[in-house]
């Protein structure tokens, strides 16, 4: 895999994940108590021995850059790197990235200098574990110009994805973005060609793109240079290339989740707590997910009842009940709290004991969850200060609300508390 360059697309403004993306780039959003979204594709690359990795982003990239610099420092005896490439003004390009293909095009001079055979294009907001080596082997065996990683999809979910048709050799011959009705029926394919059993093929007669591509180096460079008006890989570059290039499909049968919305992000995090084994697990010695080493102390639990939950390191949790929840690093929860079906992202720092004590005496709200509070079906972003006897329970069962001045949104019935915000004592949401 030394002849492969990895390019991770950091995405746009992350409006579907707002307010989690208010102060950070989408790939920097925390995940699974101690990780960030960007750790998934970077770890997959490292485990696949792809060690030259660029991350393209343009919004709120400071925290993402800091995380990558602290997490992925390769030895000076290896040529590996993980580097952020942010949108910048040049003589050739004076604006923002206009799409996935345009983002790569704006750095075409940099990437074409690399002596590699293939580029692997990845998304920064998916949760999955993949050996890219097998993906690239399939690309080379079929002498493909472009290979797309695809997942089998049942009819119920198919209309939400970009679908494709293949011939008997697995070559992609047609694309359709989110088809409905008769157009959807016309996109059915025999997925046994890609290795599914007859029963599996009957249950999932459609194939959807994962937004993961392998390009031959010269093919990608020529397509980007000769189609300057096309800005997106999935909608323009690849469908156009299928007419006169060998575009192949590679079937991925493992767990894969696009976590680009608040609801999918929430569900994917809480799914990590399932027993005995979740669909995606961080407990895999052969293919670990890497992240920043923080050297935090062990979590301290004092007379707590904890069920079906994940708790990051460095937390202090007192005499409370926690069920089906994920708690991030340095979370602090005071006595008599109830936390259910909730993602708490923790804190970036510890508040000194004397400062917390004096703050409480003067009426200030310390970082963490105050005594006697109840939180259900919510996401509490980092460094939030939740006062005493607060109830975050969406008591009116509101589906959508934007209360930015009050420090929270409601998306799909999930209350999302902003980063660094304070909720005063006795508040009911």
Largest sheet: 10 strands, mixed
- Overall shape: it is globular
Q: What portion of residues is helical?
A: 10-25%
Quote the average pLDDT.
Answer: 90
Q: Say how many strands there are.
A: 29
Count of DSSP H/I helices: 12
Return Rg in Å. 23 Å
The assigned structural class equals: alpha/beta
**How much of the residues is beta strand, in percent?**
25-35%
Name the poorly predicted regions: none
For the record, give the distance between the C-alpha atoms at the N and C termini, rounded to a whole number: 51 Å
What is this structure's SSE topology?
Layout: E1 4-9, E2 30-31, E3 35-36, H1 39-47, E4 52-57, H2 62-71, E5 81-86, H3 100-105, H4 108-111, E6 118-123, E7 126-128, H5 132-141, E8 146-153, H6 155-158, E9 162-166, E10 172-177, H7 181-185, H8 198-203, E11 206-216, H9 217-226, H10 233-241, E12 247-251, E13 256-258, H11 262-271, E14 300-302, E15 305-307, E16 310-311, E17 316-318, E18 321-323, E19 326-327, E20 332-333, E21 338-344, H12 353-361, E22 368-369, E23 374-380, E24 385-386, E25 391-392, E26 400-403, E27 408-411, E28 414-417, E29 422-423
Parallel strand pairs: 1-4, 1-6, 4-5, 8-12, 14-17, 15-18, 16-19, 17-20, 18-21, 19-21, 21-23, 22-24, 23-25, 23-28, 24-29
Antiparallel strand pairs: 2-3, 6-11, 7-13, 8-11, 9-10, 9-11, 26-27, 27-28
Task: Give a structural overview.
The chain has 429 residues and is an alpha/beta fold. 21% of the residues lie in helices and 28% in strands. The strands form six sheets. Strands 15, 16, 18, 19, 21, 23, 25, 26, 27 and 28 form a ten-stranded mixed sheet that branches. Strand 9 and strand 10 (172-177) form a beta hairpin. The longest helix is centred in the first third of the chain and has 10 residues, at 62-71. The model has no long low-confidence stretch (mean pLDDT 90).
């Amino acid at each position: 895999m030394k002849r492969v360059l990895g390019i991770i697309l950091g995405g746009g403004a992350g409006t579907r994940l707002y307010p989690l993306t208010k102060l950070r780039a989408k790939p920097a959003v925390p995940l699974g108590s101690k990780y960030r979204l960007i750790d998934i594709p970077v770890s997959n690359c490292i485990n696949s021995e792809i060690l030259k990795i660029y991350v393209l982003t343009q919004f709120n990239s400071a925290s993402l850059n800091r995380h990558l610099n602290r997490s992925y420092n390769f030895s000076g005896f290896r040529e590996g790197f993980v580097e952020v490439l942010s949108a910048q003004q040049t003589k050739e390009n004076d604006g923002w990235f206009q799409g996935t293909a345009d983002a790569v095009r704006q750095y075409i001079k940099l990437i074409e200098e690399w002596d590699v055979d293939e580029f692997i294009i990845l998304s920064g907001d998916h949760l999955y574990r993949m050996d890219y080596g097998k993906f690239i082997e399939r690309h080379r065996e079929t002498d493909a110009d472009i290979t797309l990683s695809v997942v089998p999809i049942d009819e119920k979910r198919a209309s939400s994805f970009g679908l494709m048709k293949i011939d008997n050799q697995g070559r992609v011959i047609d694309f359709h973005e989110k088809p409905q009705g008769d157009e959807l029926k016309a996109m059915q394919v025999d997925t046994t060609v890609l290795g599914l059993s007859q029963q599996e093929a009957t249950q999932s007669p459609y194939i959807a793109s994962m937004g993961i591509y392998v390009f031959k180096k010269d093919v990608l460079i020529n397509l980007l240079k000769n189609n300057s008006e096309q800005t997106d890989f999935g909608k323009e570059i690849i469908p156009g290339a299928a007419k006169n290039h060998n575009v192949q499909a590679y079937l991925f049968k493992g767990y894969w989740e696009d976590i680009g919305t608040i609801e999918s992000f929430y569900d994917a995090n809480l799914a990590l707590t399932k027993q005995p084994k979740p669909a995606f697990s961080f407990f895999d010695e052969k293919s670990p997910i890497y992240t920043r080493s923080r050297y935090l102390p062990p979590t301290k639990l004092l007379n707590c009842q904890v069920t079906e939950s994940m708790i990051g390191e460095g937390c202090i949790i007192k005499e409370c009940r926690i069920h089906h929840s994920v708690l991030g690093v340095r979370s602090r929860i005071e006595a008599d709290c109830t936390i259910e079906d909730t993602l708490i992202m923790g804190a970036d720092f510890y508040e000194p004991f004397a400062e917390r004590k004096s703050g409480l005496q003067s009426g200030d709200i310390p970082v963490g969850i105050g005594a006697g509070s109840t939180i259900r079906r919510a996401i509490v972003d980092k460094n939030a200060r939740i006062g005493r006897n607060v109830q975050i329970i969406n008591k009116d069962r509101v589906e959508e609300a934007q209360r930015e001045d009050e420090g929270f949104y409601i998306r799909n019935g999930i209350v999302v508390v902003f980063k660094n915000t304070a909720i005063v004592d006795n508040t009911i949401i």
